[in-house]
Design brief:
Antitoxin-like ribbon-helix-helix domain-containing protein; mainly alpha; Antitox_RHH; 48% helix; single chain
């Protein structure tokens, strides 16, 4: 004799949920959803961005941290500012130009 199938919570709930009665000849129509705006689908910075590790010597890290504290800024923002200065110095497009909008 074979074992009875294992019950899952989903199957128990599906069996317990009453099915709505449809009149004869009724059909189910699915509506196409409008595509989300690019800003809404972009998600958070963490979801959109690529992560990169930077290894800093302790004195360099401490100085960056101290600058961020003194300016009441985040270290990430200071790193982006440094990259923007590097791009400008090398004749490359700025972060604002690359993104096509003002960075936050």
């Amino acid at each position: 004799m074979s074992k009875p199938p294992k019950l899952s919570l989903a199957s128990i709930v599906a069996e317990a949920t009453p099915k709505p009665a449809r009149p004869p000849g009724a059909e189910i129509v699915t509506l196409d959803r409008a595509p989300a705006s690019p800003a809404a689908s972009a998600g958070t910075l963490k979801q959109r961005a690529k992560q990169m590790s930077v290894y800093l010597e302790p004195p360099v890290y401490d100085q960056l941290r101290d600058l961020a504290y003194a300016e009441r800024a985040k270290m990430h923002g200071l790193m982006l500012e440094a990259l923007d200065l590097l791009f400008r110095q090398r004749g490359a497009r700025s972060i604002e130009q690359i993104l096509g909008e003002r960075p936050r």
